[in-house]
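TODO from last week: model APC family permease.
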Amino acid sequence: MTTLPDETGKGLRRGSLGLLASVALGLSSVAPAYSITVTLGFVALVVGDLAPAALLLGFVPILLTAFAFRELNREMPDCGTTFVWNTRAFGPGPGWLAGGWVPQTATLVAMAALAQVSAGYLLGLLGLDGAAGNTAAVTAVAVLLLAALTAVARRGLRVAAGVQYVLLGLQLLALVGFGVAALARPGAATPSLSWLNPLAVDGFGPFAQAVLLCLYIYWGWDALITTNEETRDSDRVPGQAAVVSTLVLLGTYLFVAFAALSFAGTGTTGTGLGNPDNATDVLASLAPPVLGPALAKVMELAVCVSAASALLTCLVSSARGTLSMATHGALPAAFARVHPRHRTPAFGTVFFGSAAAVLLAVLSLVSRHFLGDAILCIGLLIACYYGTTALACVWYFRKRLLESPRALLLRGVLPLTGGLLMLAAFARSAYDMGDPAYGSTSFHGVGGVFLLGVGSLAAGGFALLAARARYPRFFRTGRGSVAACLVTAED
């Protein structure tokens, strides 16, 4: 058996994570408590009591894409993940844009939203309700949180994983406790299997919008794969953890959605899930009547640490993505710097923490209500790079699909179906975003979601042109050079 050195070819520390830690990292990056509280209301506004059906439908392309990620990671375990895989399949241009720019932009926008949410909840928990409603105060606290979590991420995966165990445990305990209490409350309706009927959704438009929202609620599990070079059995464990984490998320979300519908219904007033005033924070509205004032604070704490937990994972994953891009010559060499003691991409970690703070400040100045639009925008970006990566799996393995029934199914049929579903949701949603009424903000007749989502893709096109001029060697020989530098367990 080959003995692996303590460091990978990029200077990262090998063997930092096992299967359990990888699953915890994947679940934490999704921020279950935060994601369900800021998304379930929007889904209910679109499809009513068919929210569980939307959650189930949204999960299908996610699971199919997870199989694609697993197969690609088995072949090419590199912390650049989507960047490396799309470059190998489609070439340097699509790899840089769809595999690098798009996921990094989605992560950056998510970090700004996560920091804002965590800061607002923290101020509320401390009894500083006035400050929690003040944009400047929330932004200031959010920047401090970003600084603290950047310091943790910079220290290494073992420290980050230890923190995540505690934060994830609190989230899952709070969500399960809320669900049990909601179902047990007097007057709660009996859950109905008809809530899972996708055929009852009225039209493709609402269906596509609901599925796009649900992409956001599941998004983030792929962050665990960016740590593949620091995981034991890097070609096997990250892929297994990706599938396990998505299944755990499905069960948790369906349970909470059924419980919330049973207790609150879809009315447009009070605690009803159809009340637009509750859409951005469902659990904050439902927790007091379900759990009582004291335990409702525990739910608030769960959402607070959920957002902070996901923020920490974003810092971990984004820095490793740019580390790989820089190592392969597609970004400035500074992003390839690894801390000599902690063995982490120190420059990239600090860069993303700082960039998220700047973005948060800018968006807060532009509009106080960017959170809902940010969620919708992120869904568009997720559909773009998940769909492209799923198709990259099919294209990369195209000459080997007939080697076995397993190869045909897991490397061909399932990823192809998932990729097409993702890109269909992307196309429909991009069309819908042209309406200024889509989302909660607009600027000079253009919707805020359109500006954030489609605008960031257009900006990526210009960034790609600049990168071609700055790194011509990568764009000439990127496919071959990436293949030559791949890190495998036998290195």
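Done. The first helix runs from residue 19 to 30.
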